Please model this.
Amino acid sequence: MKYLDEFRNGPQARRLAEEIARVTTRSWSIMEVCGGQTHSIIRNGIDQILPPQIELIHGPGCPVCVTPLNVIDKALAIAARPEVIFCSFGDMLRVPGSRDDLLRVKGAGGDVRVVYSPLDALKLARDNPNRQVVFFAIGFETTAPANAMAIKLAKQQKIKNFSALVSHVLVPPAMEAILRSSGNRVQAFLAAGHVCSVMGYHQYHILAKSYQVPIVVTGFEPLDLLEGIRRAVSQLEAGQASVENGYERVVTEAGNVLAQTTISEVFEVTNRGWRGIGVIPYSGWKLNAEYAELDAELRFSVSNVDPSESSICRAGEVLQGSIKPNECAAFGKACTPRHPLGATMVSSEGACAAYYNYGRFVELQGMKG
Amino acid sequence: MSRIADDPIENVAGSQPSVAQTTKVEPSANRAAVEMHEFSCPIPIHDHQHIIMGHGGGGTLSAELIEQIFLPRFGNPALYALGDSTVLSLPSSRIAVSTDSFVVRPLFFPGGSIGDLAVNGTVNDLAMSGARPLYLTAGFILEEGLPIDDLVRIVDDMARAARAAGITIVAGDTKVVQRGHGDGCYINTSGIGVVAAGLDLCLDRATVGDVVILSGTIGDHGMAVMSRRDGLEFDAPITSDTACLADLVQTILHACPETHVLRDPTRGGLATSLNEIANASRCGIVIEEQAIPIDSTVRSACDFLGLDPLLVANEGKLVAVVPEGSADAVVTAMRNHPLGSRAALIGRVVADEHNMVVARTSLGGHRIVTMPIGEQLPRIC
Model:
């Protein structure tokens, strides 16, 4: 497809990298917020063509990684019930809970289905009136509109055997939490392009101003990322701290207002625990009172889970950018994609999995081939 | 793409009859098979539009299935004898044997069906040893309720694929399992071929300095099947690449008889095949990502679902590892073959104690290419 190839052009990417090297006079640490960006950076080797002074810090923007352990444990408890068809996005299936993951629950007889859209779960509910269909509604602002729409439709159409286990998270409060943390090293952000396509970027101005941090709305293709980095470095070098839109073909300042309206009809802001990080005030969405009847947590009374996290996993520090995945003692040894201790080793967007899969853990041999 | 069947043995109805034979068959029986395919019984299996348990029970219904569906399509003297086993004469004592089971959902997908896969899959496995495939057996596990028309389509596809590959189906078996205990139809095929003297193709023969050649675009089959999966139907003009590679293999071996490794990257995709070669041969492989041909629609579909095309299944592609000096000859010969028109040199075998497969990216960076752990799971957003 020409459209994508345009943004993957090797010579143009190298020219952008040279331009970044030309304007860089000192060391800078830039955080790419979204896991999709991390994945693209590692997969394409973008960090390898940047000048050595530029450090990319991988952000917390992997929805699978930050979904809190107690929610995963609730999901496992619900999915194991015989009357339930539990519907989830694919990459949640291998995320470890305290003792199990959804794949093992499925293997043990739980009816766990991978869906590609929340509307598929709604259809399953219609087709199976004698079963309870539960949709695992997680993710950032990107998945929220479709999830909200499915929940709204379920209420409208009086589909009584449908409910949702909701654990949505919001990006801007997490960015602020990182800036406020004592060990913060982030000097500029590449904001998550797809989140901004829904929510716009007007809310970032106050963040940029208050914390004097440049924020560049950035896409996911190699040229998008390099352009975002170039703009961030230019601002840093010039001592500026403003919000720029480097993903204009997708993002507007106001975002998708229709999607925002649907979200606000169904969800309300709540304090949310982030796996590995802790509770961040006002950083999540939950079902509002009007939709409480569709809340799977209430329907199945699963508030009494007793989560226990691996004692050696340092996913939280990875998610906050304090350490690189391969600085964790368990990385590649006790913790691998096959036996993940933390969620960051599971999702293809997780920083640990990206490091592991693309081989950032051993000195490369034979590269002169 | 495959799933492992989980049917407990007690759900299997009947254990006979095997459609096999005691008649001697010479390799020249191929010709008989070619002629027999024209014959197809027009009479429908009376009263039944769907497979019922009795079709696996060994009685009249089983016999009808054999006589009206299998024999007319696979027909050859060996099958018509309906013996318990088949006696074959082979032109050489150096034989290749392979078996494979086929479980795909949906049974029909753009570009092919489980029937095509069941023949081409085993034939290709034989061909990867340099063998000339000769005979195939076919075992069916049918689910109660499978439309007879679907079975006919599958068997038609198998017969056509067998004719194209020049092989004869010399034995078969059918069982029926209860509704809900199978995905409509599972097929196992086993095959025999003969290997010419002097050929020595083996996974562990890749040598430092060798080049790696790919016969064409990757990911087509996996994405074609995925485009028709329940809940994921997307309208993309992607067709499976299912094809018999035996002739292409002979073309390669003619151009380079000292070919070291041939591998068809099916489940697990190109990444898995390359890792298997690197591990078995105790070497590393460096590939140029840009050199790997990928159809633009397949690439877009993979992007959309968050899948890596290097890990997506193929059913009509092969990887050849040959000495550097033969690279041009092999690429040219492959490009002159209809199944190798987009053949490309994609990488080299290097010394590497970690036996890693490394891809150079178009940006000038590099990444390690690993095997998938299980099935790729589409990502969340």
Notes: Residues 361-369 of chain A have pLDDT under 50 and may be disordered. The first strand of chain A starts at residue 28 and ends at 34. Chain A touches chain B through 55 residues (CB under 8 Å). The first helix of chain A runs from residue 2 to 5.
